[in-house]
Each structure stands twice: as C-alpha cells, then as structure tokens.
Write a structure and sequence with these properties.
Helix content: 25-40%
Shape: globular
Strand content: 15-25%
CATH class: Alpha Beta
Oligomer: single chain
Order of helices and strands: HEEEEHEHEHHEEEEEHEEHHH
CATH superfamily: Ribonuclease Z/Hydroxyacylglutathione hydrolase-like
C-alpha cells in the first residue's frame, strides 16, 4: 500500500508540474507586443496585451509610478513604453504578486534603480528561475515581507498582504487603499479552477481558506484586478473562496466514499450557483489528482 500511495503522489505531482511548466511558458507566436491600458480609477490603470501574460497594474503617484507585475519575457519594455504615454514620471516601485514567468519575467527590463518588493517565499522561488540567472540577478526582489507590509503614505500608500498557501506559497494581495482597489494576482486569476503550483508551494487544501482570510482580513476594497480575467468585485472574491472550499469538500467526500481520482474528475460539476465558472477538463483532472495526493500526506 505504501508503494501504491507513493506512486499516486508522484503521478499527481508530476502532472501538476507539467501543467505549471506549460502555464509559465511564453507564447510561441512572436507577434508585436501591444499593450492596452484600461483606466480603473484616477491614476490607476490595468495593462493587458495578447500573449503578455498576467494583468499589470500601474499607479501614478505624486513623485513616481508603481507597477504590479511585469508580464512575460520581452514585455518589460512595452510596459515601460506604455507608461511613458500615460505620464512622464519615472517608475520607482515594482511589486510582484507571485513567482510565475508571466508575471515576473518583464522585471529584467526595468531600470536597475527600481525598488522591487515581493513576499519572502516568492523571492526564494524567483531565485530558482533561469531568467534571473541569465540576467545576473537583474529584476530580482530587493525587499520582502512576511505577512503584511505598508509602503508609502497618504493617497500614495500601498498595503501588501499574505494569508497563506494557494496558487503558490507566496501569493501577495496588493491594496491601493485610497482607491479601494486590490490586485490579487493568480490566487484569484478569474472564475475558474485555479492552477495549483505544488513545485512552488501551492496547495489545493489551503487555497480556499487563504482566500477567505483575505476577504475577511482586508477592508474597504470594492474592485479587484484579477490575475488574468476582468476586474471583479469584493463579493466575487467571497464567492471564489467558497468555490474552492466547496471543491475541496466534494473531493474529500468522494475520496472518503472510495471513489478514484479519475472517477471524480469524470463526474464532478460545479453547483448551479457557480454558473459561468470555467472548469477545463485537463485542469479538473490535474487538480483532483493533486488534491488526492495532498490529502493522503
């Protein structure tokens, strides 16, 4: 039984590893890197672009610009060029929500003078990434925080939070209190089954709880910039926390009933209240298998 259990863990984690590697790979197409800017609030924009990766936030402060996430390789310069269209002020601060290549790779193209801040586990994860090794550490985090950090003051204040494992073990929530807006990164990438990066400390068992802690612990936020989807509401975050909690509950119940991971993946459907959620077949199978392995530990 021990040998069978270990094989199951290796298979599940291996499948997750493959999924994460695929997720982090930059797109094969080498078309023009066109960045679009969507105004969220005064002085706050969300930058997107086909093939660019995660959503980027840009806040124009009194003396400089703060950026949250820097997209795929090669997108740092297009981000900086778009910012120059919005303001002549220099970029002074870059915050990364987590370690993945489609959120941090553009870091290496930012000026060396830019302060870079991440959650402490994310820095450890970033130090393993080839892109920073290839660039002699350029774009690597200069400062870290553990649970909470406040940068700046007044209307140019940013609050950074960490509530536990989820997508990775370093998912940061970046709050712009003066604007009542938050960037959630990929712990809330959109209304879908999350990608669980076990290689970087992610957890399908803990993600629902981490999201619920964020919803309870952070106050006075109305809008959320998601990792890859549209801008969502504070109520959407509560719903997404419950969605992940319900998924864990359903997998635990099926496991207790003696069902195999494949049986669960072939039959599970989200409750009607989660209408509109994306449940990709491959992601469902990977997450169920990974949860089975995590629950058996």
């Amino acid at each position: 039984m021990k040998r069978a259990h270990m094989l199951g863990v290796l298979i599940a984690v291996g499948a997750t590893s493959l999924g994460v590697r695929a997720f982090q790979q930059p797109p094969a197409a080498q078309g023009p890197k066109i960045v679009q800017a969507q105004k969220i609030k005064d002085n706050l924009y969300m930058l997107t672009g086909d093939g660019g990766g995660g959503n980027t936030a840009v806040y124009i402060g009194e003396t400089g610009v703060t950026v949250v996430d820097a997209k795929n390789p090669g997108w740092g310069t297009p981000i900086l060029n778009k910012i120059k269209e919005l303001t002549p002020k220099p970029v002074t601060l870059l915050i990364n929500t987590h370690t993945h290549g489609d959120h941090v790779s553009g870091n290496v193209e930012f000026p060396a003078t830019v302060d870079i801040v991440v959650q402490e586990n994310t820095k450890t994860n970033m130090e393993k990434m080839q892109i920073f090794k290839d660039n002699a550490g350029r774009g690597m985090a200069k400062r870290t925080f553990k649970d909470k950090m406040t940068i700046g003051s007044g209307k140019d204040r940013f609050d950074l939070y960490y509530f536990g494992r989820g997508h990775t073990n370093g998912d940061a929530f970046i709050v712009f209190p003066g604007l009542r807006v938050m960037h959630a990164g990929d712990i809330f990438s959109g209304k879908n089954l999350p990608l669980l990066d076990y290689n970087n400390g992610g957890s399908g068992v803990e993600i629902g709880n981490s999201l619920a802690k964020a919803h309870k612990g952070i106050k006075n936020v109305d809008q959320i910039i998601t990792g890859h989807s549209t801008v969502m509401t504070w109520a959407d975050l509560a719903e997404y926390a419950q969605f992940n909690t319900d998924f864990l509950r359903d997998v635990q119940a099926a496991m207790k009933a003696g069902k195999s991971a494949d049986e669960v993946a072939a039959s599970w459907k989200p409750a009607d209240k989660y209408k509109g959620y994306t449940v990709a077949e491959a992601r469902l199978k990977t997450n169920v298998g990974a949860l089975y392995a995590e629950l058996k530990k």
